[in-house]
Amino acid sequence: MKSRTPIRPDSELAAEFWQKGRSDRCPIYDMHGHMGEWYGIYFPRMEPADMVRSMDAAGVKRLCFSHHASLLAPELGNKPAVEAVRAFPDRFRAYLAVNPHYPDIARAEMAQFDSMRDIYTGLKFLPDYHGVKLSDPRYKFALDFADERGLIVLTHTWGGSQQDGPEQVRIIAQRHPRVRFLLGHSFAYDWDSAVAVVREHPNTYLELTGILGMRGVVDLFCEKVGSDRVLFGTDLPWFDQQQAVGSLLSSSITEDDIHNICHRNAEKLLDL
Amino acid sequence: MRFFDCNCFIGLPAVGMLKPAPGAADLLAAMDRSGIEQALVWHVVQRDYAVPTGNRLLTEAIAGHRDRLTGCWSIMAPQTGEIPPPDELFGKMAEANVRALRAFPDRNRYLLRPEACGTLLDGIVERRIPLILAAQGAGQWQTAYDLLANYPRLVCVVSDMHVWGTDRWFRPLVETYEHVYVELSEYILDGGVEAFVQSYGAGRLLFGTGFPKWDHGGVMLMLRHAEIAEEDRQAVAAGNLERILKEARL
Question: Chain A residues with CB inside 8 Å of B221's CB?
């Protein structure tokens, strides 16, 4: 076989990633990350310094993340995330994770949000794991808070979910037009709904964590909604960021689309 | 860097897929674009419709492509006579350039146990034919554990493991049984390859993509830049699979 750039022949971008593992021309903003322990997974690289090393290798400039503790250990809350951002202020921004079962804890942390805009970039919801629907009154205070400020809210979504499926997102996107909803996992496996919801609601974005590499998905999204509504995400430390980039390169989307997904869309959302 | 994909399939799945690879030509075209030299390929009809028909379709599909495509058939418990008896099966495998086997015991409703598959599994073990087992969820891992407890010398590739947290499942098998291998298509944990190689060396990892469910490029780029020695990288990318397929006595 003739020697040429693997994955995407005749692509200088692919050649750069193949040779160096990163691209100087195509930095990456990973809009969906995590940190720390998780009950179901062994992570070799879950601490901030190790994660920064992985990010360096893949050319990821910034990771917007929610600490696992903030999602599942209410007594620890968002404190570990704040500490991580303070340790690496140029590399991390945190989502303030909201657990709807503990509104007092969430309200107390949100009371500090405005004075901590160097730490927090938005809110994070995990409805499927917390067992609370997005449209439930227990999320209202947080959604109102986000809407008043025009914040980013990254929410876990999944196809067929009663808590965070398409119908739930439609309700809250309609109610809170100033919130910019990042749809984590893009209603995995319900691609038609992902396309429909984003077309219907200009304040929603498709986010690719956990589905990058599924053949045809990112192609479908770019074709049907446009790459300017699609965001790069990896759940780091769950998934390898170079695996995610390789998946984008393997698709049939254009290099312009890749730039949109990897950095341009995030730069606009984050006002960079 | 040479790549030999241990995990890909052709055919139209019963449940729709955005971009299937209907035939060998589709697979080879994708391999050419990606830069993958060879592939161990099965036919999705083996899983979705019927093992005997799927094996036949696979044989026909790869017939003209022996230089790049090695076949993988599926087995079932032999009592019903739907697959040939072991010696005949192994002879036919050799003729068809099939050098590995898969099993879907849950779907085909049998148990991979000595009572059900003893003569067949004895032959597979003796001939060092790799058996590829998808391990998705606790039930299928239990199947793998039970199988290896009964057949500790089995060359077994755990595959399609789901992307969420499988180390606590596969590491005990890798540590206990010297011929267990892990394929990479859904093992995309950050630092996972490095951690595996540090613990067990590179000889038990196999490059696999899960194509066409998954694109080629993700695992390729991940492996390309894994922080491991170059010789280890090439072993994972192709050398390990070449070795175990060559060791199969057919």
Answer: 7, 17-18, 21, 242-243, 245-246, 249
